[in-house]
Amino acid sequence: MHQLTSKRRILGIDPGSRLTGFGVVDFDGDQAVYVASGTVKSIEGAFADRLRQIFLSVGGIVDQFHPDLVAVESVFMHKNASSALKLGHARSAAICATFAHGIEIHEYAPREIKQAIVGTGAATKEQVQHMVVSILKLDGVPAPDAADALAAALCHGHQWRIQVQLGNGKAIASSR
Description:
Layout: E1 7-14, E2 19-28, E3 31-41, H1 47-65, E4 69-73, H2 81-96, E5 104-108, H3 110-117, H4 125-136, H5 144-166
Parallel strand pairs: 1-4, 4-5
Antiparallel strand pairs: 1-2, 2-3
């Protein structure tokens, strides 16, 4: 069995055309440590202006926290095709903001994230929030979109640990 010896900083992103959640988690071996979280609000203005706000805000988050990789929730069909298309554009704006930094990007379906964090792919937002608070030992409850982003980061951190322990992944030392 491989030992986890490297640190990884993971930026989780829960994309949305009006609210995009972000969460930053450090992994050191088996320990997940909360760094930061919040919500990018892109509620006003034309759709292109809202996408620009997502792009610039996520770029600023990357500049501030220097993540080693990004875990982003994939697009799913929610209310209708138009909503899914807007979500896809918002997701693309967030992902493109990381390109200049050469950061690895990993995608997870919402059900996959919920399964990893709560134990069921049909978990509610409240259940995800509760487990994120419990896992990261937070004093307060993050906003739902921020909790979903933290859950994406935790999901990837757990997947990465499993791959390393099985010998299918590489523990890459952080440049910090």
